[in-house]
Specification:
- The chain has 70 residues and is of the alpha+beta class.
- The chain is built from one helix and three strands, in the order βαββ.
- It has a three-stranded antiparallel beta sheet with strand order 1-2-3, covered by helices on one side.
- The radius of gyration is 11 Å and the shape is globular.
- The N and C termini lie far apart (39 Å).
């Protein structure tokens, strides 16, 4: 089982850039921890939302990286 993050623009299209990381994880928890540490740099890199994938199956998402508006 391999866990990955799918990086997306706000409209749901894939965010494609050579500068985006191509990380794979052995567990859901490892993937979620990594996202917690890197979400700001992903947002700065043009990613608006992410979906967690288990192999090629969506586990959950899309989840916005933008802070909630007050």
């Amino acid at each position: 089982m391999t866990w990955t993050w799918q990086f997306e623009k706000a409209d749901g299209t894939l965010a494609a850039s050579r500068s985006l990381p191509k990380e794979t994880f052995g567990s859901q928890g490892d993937a979620e921890t990594w996202l917690g540490e890197h979400w700001r740099s992903l947002l700065d890199g043009g990613v608006d939302q992410v979906s967690l994938m288990e192999d090629s199956r969506p586990e959950y998402g899309p989840m916005s990286l933008h802070p909630p508006e007050d």
